[in-house]
Amino acid sequence: MDLRRFITLKTVVEEGSFVRASHKLCCTQSTVTFHIQQLEQELSIQLFEKIGRRMCLTQAGKNILPYVHEMTRVLEGMRQAAQQDAEPVGELRIAIGETLLAYKMPEVLQRFRMRAPQVRLSLQSLNCYVIRDALLSDEADLGVFYRVGNDAALHMETFGNEPLVLVASPLLDGMDFTRPDQHLPTSFIINEPQCIFRQVFESTLRQRGITLENTIELWSIESIKRCVASNLGVSFLPRFAVQRELLSGELKELPFSRTPLTITALCAHHAGKSVSPAMSTFMQCMHESLPVTSSVS
Description:
single chain, alpha/beta, 44% helix, elongated
């Protein structure tokens, strides 16, 4: 079997269409179609079916996809082994949690750009659960996010436990979030439901029997902080994300727990994925900019 056909299949799945796959592979759409047809004949299965205007993987196609990822990983590993001492090149796909991207990663990204100017950096800000899934499905090379459970399929390096803090406007008075079984007439301002620190806060309130007026969902951490500073409600965020506002007096910290509640920041990649020179360089930049506390495979 021609390995190029498997690479074509993987690219079609990643790009979502034959046309976009042909652009990425720098070939014609007819070449992509030919590769898929030849692969279907060799495997005696149908790989794609047309649903509406989209070409979707059949169940048979989904069944072989993990093996396709493994074959392409091995091929990429062979290439990387041959170029181990070469300057990092190619594409590096990184998915990062929003608060980490905004407040922890600028120095890392600056270092990486200086050391690997030939690498095409694909950067996405995603939810932590989505990042984990992207690593497992080989849709991202590296993920920088908060731990959302243990997964044996990932190699993880932790970069410390980040304390969470309950913040409010200095104008807010008379709110005691440590006293159980009460209703507090204020709003919780936070982002989407799968946000890790939102889950920690809401779980703690349920345990204490505390209810609030409502939840205001905003996508931007900066917007959340501005609304809290305007006394529209409270929020529960990593301390590093609000440190400047706490020091300036724009926000104040409210008592919430005797010992700080924390979340674990980490960098991870698929345990079966060969570490490319670009990946290695990026992780080295993280080591230099952020303290590593442990490594888990």
